[in-house]
## 1
Amino acid sequence: MTASSPIGWWRSDGTPFASDPATAAESFSRLNATVTVVRTPDGVAVCTGGTAVIGRAGSGEGFLPLLAFAGPLTPSHLGSSAFLQSHSLRFPYMTGAMANGIGSCEIVEAMARNGMLGSFGAAGLSVARVTEAVDRLQANLGDKTFAVNLIHSPNEPTHEMAVAELLLRKRVRLIEASAYLDLTPAVVRYRAAGLGANPDGSVRIENKVIAKVSRGEVATRFLSPAPQRLLAELVTAGHITQQQAELAARVPMCDDLTAEADSGGHTDNRPAITLLPALLALRERLQAKFNFTTPVRVGLAGGIATPASVAGAFALGADYVVTGSINQACRESGSSDVVRTMLAQADPADVIMAPAADMFEMGVKVQVLKRGTMFAMRAQKLFDLYRGYASWEAIPAAERVQIERNLFRRTFDEVWADTKDFFTRRDPTQLARAATDPRHQMALAFRWYLGLSSRWANAGDPDRQLDYQVWCGPAMGAFNEWAKGGVLEAPASRTVAVVAKNLLFGACVHLRRQSLRQQGVDLPDDWFPLRAKDESELDTLI
């Protein structure tokens, strides 16, 4: 324990002070109270009552030296109050969309009921399935805020536009736009179609966008107005009005920008400690250029998994935080119990990059769980064959036999029949191209395996465990290490609300401790409530 010279003086009001770990931790658990650190005749102690005077004026009889103090800090005071107000939230915390409904309706509903934001994982789902989810969320949540994912689909632009049209038709007022390499007609249409003019001439934004990005060039597009070229095309097509196109030139493409660091799924593996400051600086530069009425807020995702990482995000200047991998291990996720168990056993190094199903031909990769599955190695094998051969028939016979026996577990012709049936319903233009391009046919068949691998995982298919594709970042391992020996260690005890509240509560404790250190006081670990708590205790404290 280290303590600096006094910064003032403190006098008791009868409230006892504590110098034992248990009572001190209880004091720091009271987030609404100021905790003072004083020097007593018996050593350093803490107290949540009394009178503190900064400076030398309070010295005298009955006063003790004041070494430091930690002011009130609750989860509602973390991040940006504008973010909370804009989305009608209590806490600046969001669960990001995980594809194929892993970011489930149950997760979204739990977040909304607890004053936080959830995003439904619409990527990879049919329009009918997304429609079903939107109908449920609107019926169950009423006016509570929720988001739906709109993912960039360069190989299926027709499907991307169909999802955007659904969201417009259903009057979904908030989307999480993810994996964008560039702006597309679908996301620009969603944004611009929700613009209107207020009586005072200001722009009314009804369709809000949270853009998740990891590259400066993509961030620039979302931090700027929509391109005139795309707006003109949408006006010509009758998708937006001329007035909406003109209004779009006065607002950015997003309301909030999530800096996506080293995360599960689509990721560039960027370090959070450099990505967030870079995008904050970019936001300031573009705000100065365009002078938007409301500046874009910037949050952080990727690696957000412990109280310390949440505290670090807000210390870096994040307006909000977004969690991903850790939510898949919670009971409400659209995954399976076997996957939840696998995730609960993961270490930070148990992840690997693998070819992405939705951007397979482009060589884009996603981060997945390595431990307990051979998916990454098998998916890479398919990509290498795609790059190395012009058609399925051109692949050496021995290789084809191995693929059919170990990965497909059926013949290529049988896989192609299923693939044709899928794209007949989803995007027939893919079949027209495959009819004249054997390499594209091979790519679609290989995507059959990559697409089903995540569904086998979600269903917990015991016969396909070695083929499970489980999107996961190193945050999962960090969470597991923090949770060991506590109430969140077992997968069955993990719910998204309890996890979120623990991370927010713990972040407040970490930041208050850091404020003491900045005043020259470093207290022992066991003086702070650093372990996870159950929901009833959290609700009382928060």
## 2
Amino acid sequence: MNRFAQSSQLLVLLLLVALGVLPLRAQKWIAPTPEELSMTGQKGAPSADAVFLFHEEITDDDNLTFTYHNRIKILKPGGEDLARVVLNSVLPTNGNDDTIRSFAGRTIHSDGTVISMTQAPDQKVITGPNGKTIQKTFQLPEPEVGSILEYRYTIHLENHLEPPTWLLQRKYYVQRAHYEWLPTNERLAAHFKGEPTQAIQSIAYTPILPPGVQVTKGIAQDNTNRLLFELNAIDIPALPSEDLMPPVSSFGYRVRFYYLTASSNEEFWRQTGKILSDDWNRYIGSGDDIRRLVASLVTPSDTPEQKLRKLYAAVMQIDNLSVDRDRGFPKAEQQYPKSADEVLTMSRGNNDQITDLFVAMVRAAGMTAYVMRVSNRDQYIFDPSDPNIGQLDDNIAIVEVGGKELFLDPGTRFCPFGHLFWRHAATTGLRQTKAGTEIAETPPELVEAYQVQRVANLTIDGEGEATGTLKITCLGTAAIELRQAAAIDQLAVRKKLKEDWENVLPKGMEFEVSSIDKLEQFDEPLTIVATVKGPIGMTEGGRIHAAADLFEARRDQLFQPESRLEPVHFRVREIVRDAIRITFPASMRVVSLPAGSTEKLNGVTSYEFSSESAATSVTIRRNYAIGQLIYPVSDYSELRSVFSRTQTKDREPIIFTDK
């Protein structure tokens, strides 16, 4: 090799290192076996798009690093997406991000050809309510069915490391996994979100592991005499993929390490509750501006509920930074509110800060109010035996009214007064009390709190072409998420409504939003009016076949598998009422109309279907209610059977023909 070629190769190598594509030291690649190169499927996961041949995580506290190594076999075209690796890290205030280091990757085709990654990552900065995040996207070269994707990278944290959590189960089957944690020998303070530190007594962990797999504890063989926690596992099944599963954190195989800061779990939650309560009380404070505002809003003659409604309506006008509204997030140079007084004067805050302001206002009005921090039900099922404050997500408010406690959710944008957002209802958390704090549950929302009414008035011609209107009314908490989405981008909401409805209405039927009323009125029903046109069903042999409930004509069927691994967790208890009137020409008649039907399950989940016919019209009415949030696996067979019968009834045809 001549001197020019050597210099050119060195220049390329230095450039790739600078771009973060190649490591600063040699990577430890694993040579693929002939069996890996030729494999076309995975026993135990016959329909999988890919399989992890190897997954490794090593946490080194002394070096403040997490190191990851993955080897993935692509089995089907869907697995090719795994060649795109997206990593996020918080952007430091100095703007220099070197959190993600030493990313290196390669693709190995089934014939053994190795293609090294040389492309620099795409990156962008994302601004959110909690600061800026840098997102880097790495693309492994030329992925195809049969390829093995292999990549390694290191995450470096500048100031501290928290104990790791090892998540064994992934979206795909894992053949072999290896985990290590090397805690520092130095005495660390628990990282408690900036709160006063607590003395560390020891290291402990909470395991949910398959039979025969366990964490081992030893001494590292690296002359440091550090502790070494290690775990090896083989043949780890993929996470279940079932309709309406409980949160993965409640059942997925995992190990969560933590620094033991209390003599017992009960003592941990007592200490944690005191720290949180003191922090809430400091944040809430007792500012003059809050007292003056409250005095201007309420009168001595107001009942307690009237006072609460006025205060609740006032905080709903605060710019909620947890929902990206038209005004966007504050500029980088602007400060976030450091107290409830500042939330009021700045007229902005995140969901927790707005809740704290509401509690401050209620207290200023002379009423007793508490803060409660809860687990979001879509993320966690709270486990008091796991001393992990990360189980708690959001603040809600509790107010004493007439000797009873009223649970309110002012921090959830557009949540109606007297209700909780579904993630915050029927969950568990840590709350303030007169005596201190305690673990408690939030009440479930009544089934009537979430209602959707859908009314269609259609006219069809002799060819089965329909025109008409749909009116969809969302009552109570059913309107929250639509309003939040519209606060970000109303045009996007209209487009999404069109796409969603055209995917469930009869094929070929067009849906256009005419109006969305009362988007800003959190305590009023939200109404969507749309026009529709297109074929109402299938025409065959001179007859028109239309699904009885056109709102359900092509909706995906729930609970198709005959068996189930996990309980069914419905998001909400809800009521859906449908009314569909189809007017047809006098030259036509109805030759078949579905009969009425009733279904019940456990006395709380119900379905009622009825139909009636007049000279030139038919009317379908359907009432559906889910009154129970959780169904154990033992109830799955009956639940599946009920849903199968109701979905069949929804799609039974109304048959029209010429007279």
## 3
Amino acid sequence: AAETINAFQETVKEFALISQGEIALGDGVKGYEVEFSWLSGNTPAMAKILYVMRGTQVIDITAMSRTSLFESNRDVIDKIMGSLRLEEPQPFGIPRSQALTLYDIGPQTLDPGVSRESTSHRYIAQIFSGLVAFDKDLNLVPDIAERWTVENGGTTYTFYLRQGARFHDGREVTALDFKYSWERAAKPETGSQTAKDYLGDIVGVSEVVEGRATEISGLRIIDSRTLQVSIDAPKAYFLSKLTYPVAFAVDRANVESGGDWWRRPNGTGPFKLREWQQDELLTLERSPQYYGQPVKLGYVVYRLFGGVPIRMYETGEIDVAEVSTNDTRRVTDETNPLSKDLHTVPQLSVYYVAINTTRPPFDDALVRRAFAMAVDKDKLIRLVQQGALPRADGFLPPGLPGHDPDFLGLPFDPEAAVKLISQSQYGDASGLPPITFTTSGRGGELSDFVGALVQEWRQNLGVEVVVRQLEPETYFYLIKEEKDEMFDTGWIADYPDPQNFLDVLFHSDSKANDSSYSNPEFDALLERARTEQDEDTRMKMYQQAEGMLIHDGVMIPLWFGKDYLLVNPRVRDYVRTPQGTPLLKQVTLQVP
């Protein structure tokens, strides 16, 4: 109000303040009213402005006209302005008090059988579910299976499905649904890039993946609520693999309804899909059929590409915001009001440069090590990540079993790196074939850290690296076929076991081995670790395997993950696990 008065005083003739002060509107709403007059040309004019605040929003109503008209209509003007009521906002037709509103870019797919990136997984975990799950502390807990037994030396699992577990359409989930879901995921025509790695321990899965069988021989239906699973050897991490989306139950009738069935998913999770407008909006609503603890949150609204998350958070458009690297210093400053809403969550993740070990010059381990030793990670993290993330010397992140805090990795040593290239089959930098770095992006605008990496190799090795971009939305689905000599990528734990990092990503027989790394000694070590029953011995095996990877220069680990989140105080029990998965079914909203 003061700003308005000052602005008018400075720009009009014969300004006169008639009145100002707080007024009461209906429903207990308070407003602030200003009335004044001035000379508009040679005509006397009057105005009344009513201000009402709601959170960070300011609503104003202005009535303005020549004085004679204003005075003759004062009763009507007062009635109109006094009739203002503040109703609960209902963006997208959903009461704001019942909806957790988030920013996101949206999933690539809602098909659990083919999804392989964390963005899609976040949605799939709300809509679908499996036999077992992780709680907020990554403890394995029952889900659709209320219990299970393990026999035959750890190779036979019998799962007993809970009574009352239903799909969203009300049909009860049966053991046959899991048999169908797993066999469907394993069949070549489904195109899953994850079935072999996450279901491959089950006897008979490999035969289906390779097209030599249509049924998984290691699955046995005891009755409608009892499923027996045989695996090829006792493995401590087998149950954890069943928390991955490819092991979730899908409804056969839903799948067979059409190729885009997953845009109308009939899942079993705590939420069901309500609406999906590509690149604009995705909403979930509570499923009344959910078999677990009652879900208190009515809706989840995802504003897809809705703006800059931290700004949307500040204006109250979203309830939770991931803080970008550029804003971490601002939100960690205790003098900034946003710091009171800040939550930090260490991630079981690593970001790294992957090297295509089959393409020259990286078919030579000396060249691979040279490129790793030419990167100043501390400088990179300080300048590009604002010092917000911990440096990665190894590949297994802190908090993951098997992580070695004393692991040193390859040092930053440009002189030694140049010497390694001189000792390689290529002689020196001038003898290296062209090198292309594949990354995600559009329009030729490089991310800061890719530009910094290219500069490091140019400055420290005298090597020019060309950058090629792929569409960000499909990057992780295309990289296997589209990769060049190097590419940037990241990995976040699907389950808290080093097997998920080392075996899944680098065993020569793994479909997720995008580096095409093949080392018989390394493979043999991983294969022994799979069935090692002594946990300490198994962890030492994985630490040995990690050392082999780093020494062989198969990848350049850069930093480990850490989430910086702003959470509105009205949001209670919002938890994001170290896997990066939000447990939305336990969230409650405090209604003003």
